[in-house]
Amino acid sequence: MARVSPAAPEQFAQVADVMERWQKIKGYPPNSWLTMVRRPGVFRAYRALHGAVMMDEGELPNALKFMVAHVVSQACGDSYCTAHNAENAAHIADVPLEKVKALPRFRASPLFTPAERAGISRPKGTHTVFEQNGMRKLCASPFLKEEQDETQ
Fold first, then answer.
1. Overall domain count for the chain
2. Which of 33, 38, 141, 147 could be disulfide-bonded to 7 (CB atoms 3.0-4.6 Å)?
3. Mean pLDDT, to the nearest integer, of 92-115?
4. Residue 4 lies in a domain
């Protein structure tokens, strides 16, 4: 049972362009969008941020971004995002499915380059415990221990 009901049809109409584009890319909207659309402005801002960070070309290849996101989600115990980041790696960033399946063994797998191993290893440097919805969670930090010490 959903905690928050999905958005009303008129709210979906306000973001139809985004929904149609994602329908073509993935075939369905993620469940989180169905409630996030209740606030169309917030939804558009979230999509713009996601697009800038994960979809736009930058210093890191999109494939590596999704592989790192998968490993971080897994370290956080977030099975929903782990699954979606694996799917995105394969279907959006064209990471071969065999490589996506090997992510839990990236250090030893010959499918990963040294640069990919270094990038995927970075988030595993330190861990943070945080509370979410009354539950304590362990999550990988985006910093290595020595980088964290330098930024504090």
1. 2
2. 38
3. 95
4. no
